[in-house]
Specification:
Number of strands: 6
Structural class: mainly alpha
Distance between the termini: 73 Å
Length: about 475
């Protein structure tokens, strides 16, 4: 029996909040360090910024006042730089939505009229999990990869997509595939993609600070070399200023490098916590802990595991269901927790045994296809000939009146009569219409057609 998935969701959210606060504290620390460096430069080299004086008493005593506006402006400038770089990176990552990510990874869009049983099974499971999670059905992409993996990409539910590998679709059983897809829907529902993009943007802003330090160092280094050749003064105050600016540029390089390193560590830790949250949410959506834990076990026992071969797979490593690329010898920068930890969080009594790879290959496709009715012998399985009145199943005659009279009282509590009426109603619809409503443009066309009045007034009525 798995642990309470609601408690595990709350724990993952608390851990994420703490890590995000640390991320913000790191940014504030960088801005404060820049302020301190400029403060030191102004204190040690007053000639760089002429001091102002104010009278203290009638004897003419004067006090030097520190130019606080200079370090304050430097700190604000660094904050604006990090913020501006972050906004630019976020807007760039948002461009194209999840569709661009899926196509970049070699995914091909699946449509409801796909002929293969595997493709229909994937689409069916995605629709089921969309209903369970209460989110719109996103476009689905299939990647021709042997590894067992999936991903959700997009900035918001409106532009999100689900990607599934061929190995995931064909190897996993239906329950295991439901667990994987439910995991990805959790990322959509909990805003994990949006959070990840924003953290990447902040990292880019911190990196810009180091890049500007490198540019400043090069300019000052060559300027200093030229000045040393042309200057004959031994007490050149400009040389001291130049050395101070060089020290600041080196400090910016160090800050950018250290900030990017620790920011990357915090981002990876946030990603791992969101994986735990998504696993717990998958149990909530499916009410079947064995589904997602079985999928994780299959990955551990599969020949290819969850690895992806696409040359650009590393760009979206934080979006995958399981580790898709090599992430180094240490787990500090890993975007996913180890498989055993994820499995034991769902199934504490797991014995640590992986299923045999030979038993996993191809085991899910046949089982998943068995849930579908046999497709027509020829042609598209959805695009059947139009039904004639003689072939339309008769609708129950006694049920509709009862449904109308007591509809409000029975919302959310359908009876077998309601289900029977719904089955008859769906069976009476032309299969081509049913296929059309599962595709965005086709659904719009069906809605427009339903709005048309079959008893439209003639021209004489319009002129009256």
């Amino acid at each position: 029996m798995s642990t309470d998935f609601f408690a595990r969701q709350a724990k993952a959210r608390r851990n994420t909040t703490l890590l995000v606060v640390l991320f913000g504290a790191a940014v504030i620390g960088i801005v404060g360090t820049v302020f301190g460096l400029v403060y030191w430069a102004c204190s040690e080299l007053p000639i760089a910024h002429p001091a102002t004086y104010s009278s203290l008493d009638g004897f003419g005593a004067r006090e030097e006042q520190f130019p606080w506006e200079i370090p304050v402006c430097a700190g604000l400038a660094s904050l604006v730089l990090i913020g501006g770089g972050s906004l630019f990176k976020v807007s760039a990552l948002r461009a194209g939505g999840g569709t661009s990510v899926a196509e970049t990874l070699g995914g091909k869009r699946l449509y409801p009229d796909a002929a293969g049983a595997t493709e229909r099974r994937v689409l069916n499971v995605v629709e089921e999990m969309a209903i369970a999670s209460g989110t719109p059905v996103p476009p689905v992409y299939l990647m021709e990869e042997d590894g067992i993996n999936a991903f959700a990409a997009g900035f918001s539910p409106s532009d999100a997509v689900i990607g599934v590998t061929r190995g995931c679709a064909e190897t996993l059983s239906r329950d295991e595939l439901q667990g994987v897809i439910a995991h990805e829907f959790s990322h959509i529902l909990n805003g994990d993609m949006r959070m990840s993009i924003r953290l990447i943007g902040i990292l880019h802003g911190i990196l810009l600070l180091g890049l500007i330090g490198q540019m400043l160092f090069r300019v000052l280094f060559y300027a200093g070399a030229g000045r040393s050749r042309s200057s004959n003064s031994k007490n050149d105050s400009g040389g001291a200023i130049l050395l101070a600016l060089l020290a600041i540029s080196v400090a910016l390089i160090v800050l950018g490098s250290i900030g990017s390193l620790f920011g990357g560590l915090i981002k990876a830790a946030v990603s791992r916590q969101r994986e735990y949250l998504a696993d717990a949410s998958a149990v909530q959506f499916t009410r079947n802990p064995a589904g997602i834990s079985g999928a994780l076990k299959r990955i551990g026992g599969a020949v290819y595991g969850s690895k992806l071969k696409h040359p650009r797979a590393a760009e979206a490593s934080h979006m995958y269901f399981a580790q898709g690329v090599w992430e180094g010898f240490t787990s500090l920068m890993a975007t996913h927790p180890p498989l055993p930890k994820r499995i034991r969080a769902i199934e504490p009594n797991w014995d640590g045994a992986w299923p045999e790879a030979a038993a996993a290959v191809g085991g899910g496709a046949a089982a998943g296809a068995s849930g579908f009715a046999a497709a027509p012998a020829a042609g598209n399985p959805f695009r059947q000939p139009s039904l004639t009145p003689a072939t339309v199943p008769p609708l129950p005659q006694a049920v509709p009146l009862a449904v109308v009279d007591h509809a409000v009282d029975q919302v959310g509590d359908p009876t077998e009569e309601h289900r029977e009426y719904a089955r008859g109603l769906i069976a009476s619809i032309d299969p081509r219409v049913v296929a059309s409503v599962r595709e965005p443009y086709g659904a719009r066309a069906v809605i427009y057609a339903l709005l048309l009045d079959r008893d439209a007034p003639d021209s004489t009525t319009l002129h009256r």
